[in-house]
Structures are given as C-alpha cells and as structure tokens.
Amino acid sequence: MSKNDLNILSLNVNNFGGNQIKKITKDWNSPDQVLSRLIRAIDIWQYIMKSKAQIILLEEFENNSKVGKCFIKLLKSSGFTIVRVC
C-alpha cells in the first residue's frame, strides 16, 4: 500500500447485537444486554484500530443508545472525527 492509498472500512454493526435477531420484546437497555453489546463494541473498536482505515462507515449504528454513545467517545478519543449521515 502506498502513501496515496485510502483505506475505507465498512461494517454493519447491528447495534452491537452480534448475530442476534432483535425481538420486539427484548429489552436492549437491560444491564445484561448493555454489557454484552459493550463487549462487542470493544471487539469492533479493536478490529477498526488494527485495520488502520482512514474512513469508517458504520451501518445499523444506533448513536443514541448507551453503547453507541460510549462507542462514539471511544472513537473520538482514538482520533476519529464523527460525521453523522442519515
């Protein structure tokens, strides 16, 4: 890879729910679910950092959830600029 290359990483993070299908009755903000999703978020952050991508596109990312807000802080502290696109 040359210095002129641009690395773009696109990930569908499924709101950090892993391979689980969201059920309407599931409480995604229960302490157990938040902890589980937070662990997945850290794994995804580590993957992003190893990728050395300059641009990251996160699909199915709920930026108003507890985990989403923590993930945004983690990315900002790692030097990323957040651009929200609807």
| Helix segment tally | 2
* Mean pLDDT over the full residue set: 85
Number of domains: 1
The geometry reads as elongated
Distance between the termini: 32 Å
Element string (H = helix, E = strand): EHEH
Number of strands: 2
Oligomer: single chain
Structure notes:
The protein has 86 residues and is an alpha+beta fold. It has one domain (8-16, 26-77). The protein has two helices and two strands. It has helices at 31-51, 66-77; strands at 8-12, 55-59. It has a two-stranded parallel ribbon. It starts with 7 loop residues before the first strand and ends in a 9-residue tail after the last helix.
State the gist of this model.
Helices cover 38% and strands 12% of the residues. The chain has helices at 31-51, 66-77, and strands spanning 8-12, 55-59. It has a two-stranded parallel sheet.
Features:
single chain; 86 residues; alpha+beta; two-stranded parallel sheet; 2 helices; 2 strands; 38% helix
Set out the fold topology.
Layout: E1 8-12, H1 31-51, E2 55-59, H2 66-77
Parallel strand pairs: 1-2
Helix pairs in contact: 1-2
